[in-house]
Amino acid sequence: MSQNQLKTKSGRFLKNTLVAIAVALAFIGGYYFATLRSHLPTETVSAQSGNDTIHRESEKTQLWTCSMHPQIKLPNPGKCPICFMDLIPLESHDHGDEYAGATQYSMSETAKKLAEVETTSVKRERAFVKVRMVGQVYEDETRVAALTSRVDGRLDEIYINFTGVHVDKGDPMVTIWSPTLIKSQVELFETMRTGEEEESVIKGAVEKLIQYGLTREQVKEIREKKKPILNVTLRAPISGVVTKKMALLGQFVKEGTEMYIINDLSNVWIKMDAYETDLPWIRYGQKVTFTTPAVPGRTFEGRVLFIDPMLDTKTRSVKVRVAAENPDFTLKPGMFVTAEVEAEIDAKGKVIKREWAGKYVCPVHPRDEASPVPGICPESKMALRPASSFGYSDDPNPEMPLVIPSSAALVTGKRAVVYVEVPGERPTYEGREIILGPRADDKYAVYDGLSEGDRVVTKGNFKIDSAMQILARSSMMNPGESKPVSEAAGKEEVISKLTVPEPFLKQLTPVIETYLSLKESLVRADSSEAAKAATQLTEKLKAVSTTGIDKKAAGTWNKLSRTISARATMLAATQEIDKQRKAFDPLSETFAKMVMGFRHVMSGPLYLYNCPDAFDGAGAYWIEAKQEPHNPFFGDIRLKERSMLGCGDLAETIPPEFGPQAAKEDSAGNTPGARHEHGGGK
Ligand SMILES: [Zn+2]
Ligand SMILES: [Zn+2]
Ligand SMILES: [Zn+2]
After folding, report:
1. Is the pLDDT confidence value at 159 over 90?
2. Can you tell me the mean pLDDT for 449-465?
3. How remote is the CA of residue 80 from the centroid of ligand 1, in Å?
4. Nearest to residue 600, comparing CAs of 473, 515, 487, 521?
5. pLDDT of residue 34
6. Which ligand is in closest contact with the Cα of 366?
7. 267 in helix, strand or coil?
8. N vs C: which end of the chain shows fewer Cβ within 10 Å?
9. Domains held by the chain: number
10. Closest ligand to the CA of 371
11. Which domain holds residue 256?
12. What average pLDDT score do residues 385-397 get?
């Protein structure tokens, strides 16, 4: 893209028409083109060409790709991590267009210290993917009994008058007056009188009474008293809770009439909803821990018993049934629970259950014990099945996955980038696109792109990434210069910082304030205020004059402000909060890089926050004026998703320039890399 083209395009953009938006999009394409990270789909990006001047490759390396999955671009030959086909060499003219290859950034030891760059070694270690589910307690459907009348008769007494009552096996439930029962008792006395010797006849009469619902104790009593009982008491067949009462005083019941339903709640089921995206980690037999707001402070345990093979297409969720013991009856049907399953994974992302590896298990008794040989479960009489048939790895010595701290991965859309420390005279970092596995607690599993022992940047990586983009922009405006990135940085006090005079930074204050009010509108899910603030943001950006700042900084400013404006225009064009938030994600990221590159003269520091869970785990960045995250990427805080409001990891503290706080760069109290946790409601 030549300077002339740039001028033409920016001229059109200022007309603020639909055409201008399209052109602006092309700009963003060109802008992200030069970078490792892109919010735009590959198609948009690859439509661009002729951006050679902005490439910063210190060396040309052969890359390998998959003919079926062109997004795969790896430094070494091998198998495609998605389909396991052999990789083919990537054509050199493609090379570097979307993938910047060995893009390196180096800085002085002082700059490294000021930027607070920290690295850690890539390791193989046990990794547990945590899946959260919500659900409700239900009765175990295999532990339900009905008290049914086995004779015709009249209910003369009702002992259990309402549902919810706990009864023990044998407790009286009703008394029944039944001519059939009286007749059967009389028959028993007759057999006793006439044939003392004929035990089998007596036995037949006794069994008849038991068939009619009397207990052996009751029959014994009748035999001893030798007098028929007119009103016979019917007793609870099992211990449990009465969940249904149909019996009415004075009611005539027939043989087969159900009078009560009793649930044995010493074991319960939890019916959970699992998201489609979490299904790869849920397996029969996994231990589930859960809590309920009804019993604060206590954690319960269960086992996955059944995973519904059908997906609810409306909610994109699947029912997961968990069996839990409930010996003290604390769990009651209807209680809401929040549950967590931990799936251990191996290097390829296969789920592991060490106790079961290569063994056979009962399909209805999910216990840790497993049989080394096939057989039959003595309780269920069902054939044992190989654990692998439930989706577990069969390997008794599974290879542990490569893991990196989650703060090391910069995730945007489908891509993930890490900065790896490479040997050099000065601290040097190389941007690498990697294939991420699932998130495991505060770590990510890595399927490809890193090796054991590589040192990845865990802190300061956003700064390095932002420096790469800002400096690439500078060089684009000055195509004659092609110095190594670190030298182009000029003054190296803080990496990526451009030196601009105070009056310029003063102009940024209203821009930052408008950004903050736009962000707060999104926190409140107020789409009409957000649209207004976005329009204001484009106006405030336009009002900034680059008079008095050097050509390089002016060029960088123009590029960044156009990108932010284009996104703000898109945001303002819709009233749908979800679309606004999608537009805000790249806007906010570019805005953050702008603030980090130019700095500011606000009254206090600004804070860069990251929520790695936004956009299905792609993550998102935003700027706060206070050291307290107000997450703009999740639901309406006035409603139920309140707990997401406070969700955010502090990634950087950006102190003001020229003010009293200006020198506090390296003591600003950053706490990035802290464990990211949801549900800490504010
Ligand atoms: Zn493939
Ligand atoms: Zn069994
Ligand atoms: Zn979050």
Report:
1. yes
2. 90
3. 5
4. 515
5. 34
6. 2
7. strand
8. C
9. 2
10. 2
11. 144-263
12. 93
